[in-house]
Amino acid sequence: MPEVIFPGPEGRLEGRYHPQKVKDAPIAIVLHPHPQFGGTMNNRVVYNLHYAFQELGFTVLRFNFRGVGRSQGEFDQGIGELSDAASALDYLQALNPNAKHCWVAGFSFGAWIGMQLLMRRPEITGFISVSPQPDRYDFSFLAPCPASGLVINGSIDRVAPPADTLALVNKLHEQKGITITHEEMEGAGHFFEDPYMDPMIASVKSYVARRMTETTR
Question: How far apart are CA 68 and CA 80, in angstroms?
Fold first, then answer.
């Protein structure tokens, strides 16, 4: 997979870019968990989400937030990381200016950043939020949530209590015009350790494939 370096708000950002040969393929970016707790673009969930989108025919970019790996800058409490994500999407769109579909996927801290990006970029048509942390991060900005998407978490998540995720989903369900699909995987923890990784990724692929089929009818 090609390594890429692209400009971010605080210097260079390091990424992995997987283009499709098909002209005007849909695009997706994948956002990693908290940098100060070991989160990188090579996290297993992020890596598997990346390849899930690639196998579905998407051109995909994942990258390291500022201060992680070879990305320049320092951790910025989510504010700078949102700017990094916007720069990554700018870069991806510049390489694929005619893509008709744009998705964002995030895991844990990355899910929070992804949902904020969703609010700022109307071209995003779908999202995947894996193990969001509404107990730790404020999701009240989703008023209203501008696109339909999938929220997926484990039933024994000890990092982000499932009850808080359910409350977030129920709040989003009250909004008209969008559909929030929620899957709680029985027995899975925050990181979807084996044997839960493959079923989680299968659920994501099934959801995205279904959405893409609906939009091409």
Answer: 13
205 φ/ψ angles, rounded to the nearest 5 degrees: -65, -40
Mean pLDDT of the chain: 96
Return the residue matching tokens 């925050």: 190
Q: Structural domains in the chain?
A: 3-216 (3.40.50.1820)
For residue 16, the one-letter residue type is R
Q: Which amino acid is at 129?
A: S
CA of residue 77 relative to chain centroid, distance: 18
pLDDT tens-place string over residues 106-149: 999 999 999 999 999 999 999 999 999 999 999 999 988 999 99
State the pLDDT confidence band at 103, using cuts at 50, 70 and 90.
Answer: very high
3-state secondary structure of 52: helix
Residues in the chain: 217
Q: How confident is residue 217, by pLDDT bands cut at 50, 70 and 90?
A: low
CA pair distance 123, 131, nearest whole angstrom: 24
Q: Cα dihedral angle (132, 137, 138, 141), rounded to 10 degrees?
A: -50
Residues contacting residue 72 through CB under 8 Å, at least 6 positions apart: 8, 10, 11, 12, 13, 66
CA 140 to chain centre: 18
| CA distance linking residue 169 with residue 178, whole number of Å | 12
Quote the CA–CA distance of 122 and 146 in Å, as a whole number.
7
How much is the pTM? 0.97
